[in-house]
Amino acid sequence: MTPEDLFHGLPKGRLVCRAHTLIYCRKCYVDFTFTRAPRLFRRPDDCTHMRSNNLSCLKEVHIFLSQPARTGTVRRRSSRVLPTRFKPPTPNTTPLEVFRADHSRFRFCRYVNRNDSTQGLIFTDGACLDNGRAYAHAGWGRLEIQGPFGDEGAQTSNRAELRAVIAALNFRHWPGEGFKSLVFATDSEYVAEGATEWVKKWLINGWRTSFGAPVKNQDLWEALLGEVERMKEEGLKVQFWRIGREFNTEADLLAKEGAMESAPEVFTRQFGIIC
Questions:
Q1: Which residue among 14, 41, 92, 130 is the one 20 to 30 A from 67 at the CA level?
Q2: Average pLDDT of the chain to the nearest whole number
Q3: What is the number of alpha carbons within 13 Å of residue 50 lying toward its C-beta?
Q4: Can you give the residue ranges of the RNase H type-1 domain (predicted)?
Q5: Quick count: other Cβ atoms within 10 Å of Cβ 265?
Q6: Under 8 Å CB-to-CB from 215, ≥6 apart: which residues?
Q7: Is the bond into 38 cis (omega within 30 degrees of 0)?
């Protein structure tokens, strides 16, 4: 089954689950709220019932969709909400000691806190082949040439690391899956420390470093903080946990695979559905 099969014949480009005729359906584990313009994500109680015989109840195949980000769909930060640092029980605690793979409530694996079922974990990583050179290729899945607000960005590992977090935030309607907080596990000091500590000074200094230079990747930092703010409005808190590289091997492998793909021109929003 392809994404085109799912979209074929549906009115106004919208999707619903066939069994319950819902845009957002807890029983089928689907979230099609991104098909509602102008805002891509809505709360579950905003979802509308629609009638269609063209889409079967979704089950086990993971489909990865993307679309160009439209004006207004990527929010710039307002500095009202900032992510926080996740504090493990001990400094040497590993991610899988705190979070377990949960298949019971979801159609594919989620990492859920062993003591708090409302807290999920996402491993993210970014990579860049020939980092720092003119012909570098960066990836988290794939890194666009343009940023979220039309700025042209360099192909760097730091930029790919940031882009991975933004994509993961957009990937699902996380509050609708029962989560009240998401922890991003990353081996990047740039992302973990930047999102929870350095950004506070950057905002005070007008996006200047302590040496007076412009902060690199400001567009992605602003987009990240904007999404954190959006998640707060949806009832989701965002935290960061810096982990060792040895605990992030799978995300690292996928990021390197993404870096080998050709870079798309336009910034896109990513969506994950199950069918």
A1: 130
A2: 76
A3: 24
A4: 116-260
A5: 11
A6: 202, 207, 208, 209, 221
A7: yes
pTM: 0.74
Tokens, residue 219: 């567009």
Residues 6+ apart with CB under 8 A from 93: none
Phi, psi at 193, each rounded to 5°: -75, -40
Domain layout of the chain by residue ranges: 3-59, 84-274
Query: Which residue's entry shows tokens 């999404």?
Result: 227
pLDDT digit string (tens) for 189-223? 999 999 999 999 999 999 999 999 999 999 999 99
Instruction: Write phi, then psi, for 109 (nearest 5 degrees).
Output: -60, 135
CATH of 84-274, one of 3.30.420.10, 3.40.50.150, 3.40.50.300, 3.30.565.10: 3.30.420.10
- Rounded CA-CA distance 203/194 in Å is 11
Q: Which helix (H) or strand (E) holds 43?
A: none
Question: Positive or negative, the Cα torsion across 253, 256, 258, 260?
Answer: negative
Q: Are strands 127-129 and 137-139 parallel, antiparallel or unpaired?
A: antiparallel
Alpha helices, DSSP H, located in the chain: 3-7, 95-98, 157-171, 189-193, 199-204, 218-233, 249-259
Flag whether pLDDT at 60 surpasses 80. no
- Give the number of residues written for the chain: 275
pLDDT per position as a tens digit, 142-177: 788 889 988 888 889 999 999 999 999 988 888 878
